[in-house]
Amino acid sequence: MIKYSRAHRTGECRPTQNLLFSDCQLAINDLPNHLYEIPWDVILIDGPRGYSPEMPGRMAPIYTAAVMSRTRRRTRTRGKTHVFVHDYERENERVYSEEFLCKENLVDV
């Protein structure tokens, strides 16, 4: 999925498509429509579980949070969206966060 993301990105660390009309395999695009339009102050990612091969992990929520937080920048609402990723110390969560939320945006571990 990381390879898919890199192949469909325009050379920058910014997932930016509109999730309401996206066919992106990485995104969660079946939430109620109004949730994609809210200028979120905080997004907490605490699931789904991903500590074993049978569990899906948090790639889709991390990617979706990245898109939703960047959507706020394009609206009239000022401010930043803070994304907290539980279990960031695990390899998958760290790699997905650095890939989609961008390492340069990291505030604390």
Structure in words:
- Helix 2 packs parallel to helix 3.
- Helix 2 (59-73) links the parallel strand 1 and strand 2.
- A two-stranded parallel ribbon has the order 1-2.
- It has 109 residues and is mostly helical.
- It has helices spanning 2-7, 59-73, 91-102; strands at 42-45, 82-85.
- The protein is 30% helix and 7% strand.
- It has three helices and two strands.
- The two termini are 24 Å apart.
- The longest helix is centred in the middle third of the chain and has 15 residues, at 59-73.
Characteristic terms for this protein:
single chain, 109 residues, two-stranded parallel sheet, globular
Biggest sheet details? 2 strands, parallel
Percent of sequence in beta strands: 5-15%
- The best one-word shape is globular
Proportion in helices: 25-40%
Tally of alpha and pi helices: 3
Rg is: 13 Å
Element-by-element helix/strand order:
HEHEH
Spatial order of the strands forming the largest sheet = 1-2
**Average predicted confidence as pLDDT:** 79
Separation of the first and last Cα atoms:
24 Å
Topology, number of strands: 2
pLDDT < 50 runs, ≥5 residues: none
Structural class by sheet pairing and helices: mainly alpha
